[in-house]
Amino acid sequence: MEINPFVIFIASIFTGNVLLTNFLGMCSYLSISKDLKSSFGLGQAVIFVMTATTVLNYLVYKYILVPFDLEYLRFIVFIIVIAAFVQFVEMLLERFMPNLYYTLGIFLPLITVNCAILGVALFMVIREYNFLQSLAYGAGGGIGWTLAISALAAIRQKVDESRVPKGLQGAGFAMIVTGIMALAFIGFSGMLPIQ
Amino acid sequence: MAIEIIRTVSIISGMGVLLAAVLTLAERFLLNYGICKIIINKDREIEVKGGNHLLGSLIQNDIFIPSACGGRGSCGLCKVKVLSGGGPLLPTETPYLTKEEQENNVRLSCQVKVREDIEIEIPEELFNIREYTTRVEKIEELTHDIKTLTLRFLNGEEMDFRPGQYVQIKVPKYGKNTEEVYRAYSIASSASRKDSIQLIIRRVPEGICTTYIFDYLKEGDLLDLNGAYGDFYLRDTDREIIYIAGGSGLAPIKSMLHQMEEEGISRKATFFFGCVGKRDLYYIDEMKAFEGKIPNFKFVPALSGAGENEGWDGETGLITEVVDRYIKDGSNMEAYLCGSPGMIDACIKVLYNKGVTDDRIFYDKF
Question: Considering CB atoms only, which of B15, B26, B90 is closest to A80?
Answer without folding.
Answer: B15
